[in-house]
Amino acid sequence: MPRQVQIKRVYDPPQRGDGYRVLIDRLWPRGVKKEELEHDAWIKDLAPSPGLRKWFGHKVEHWDRFRDGYQAELRAPEQQARMRDLIQAAGRKKITLLYAAKDDKHNHALILADELNRLY
User: Fold this and answer.
1) Structural domain of residue 100, as residue ranges?
2) What are the phi and psi torsion angles at 39 (to 5°)?
3) Can you give the chain as a three-state secondary structure string?
4) Domains in the chain: how many in total?
5) Which end of the chain is more exposed for a tag (fewer CB within 10 A), N or C?
6) What InterPro entries does the record tag this protein with (predicted)?
7) CB distance 58 to 106 below 8 Å
């Protein structure tokens, strides 16, 4: 049975069952002090490329093309290696991906979680 990767907004309080908490935004989230965020890793290289992120601009009408572009980026060999390294670092713990976007239905964490679950 594949291990579940969950996603949470970085502003939500941590919970006991979060497991290995990973910030996956390329930029540090606004209003969050680095020393106060409970996280195990910050893997900004797994975030969408700057060009793709800026093009998307959190516009829902760009979602389908953004999803396709980000999936293509994640399926590149170097990104596959980064995802496998993340899975290995988490060990037996659940992985919680932390993101800052306000939209919980159109953000890169959803896509990355699917790709990580595919690798388990």
Assistant:
1) 5-119
2) -150, 155
3) CCCCEEEEECCCCCCHHHCEEEECCCCCCCCCCCCCCCCCEECHHHCCCHHHHHHHCCCHHHHHHHHHHHHHHHCCHHHHHHHHHHHHHHCCCCEEEEECCCCCCCCHHHHHHHHHHHHC
4) 1
5) N
6) YeaO-like
7) yes
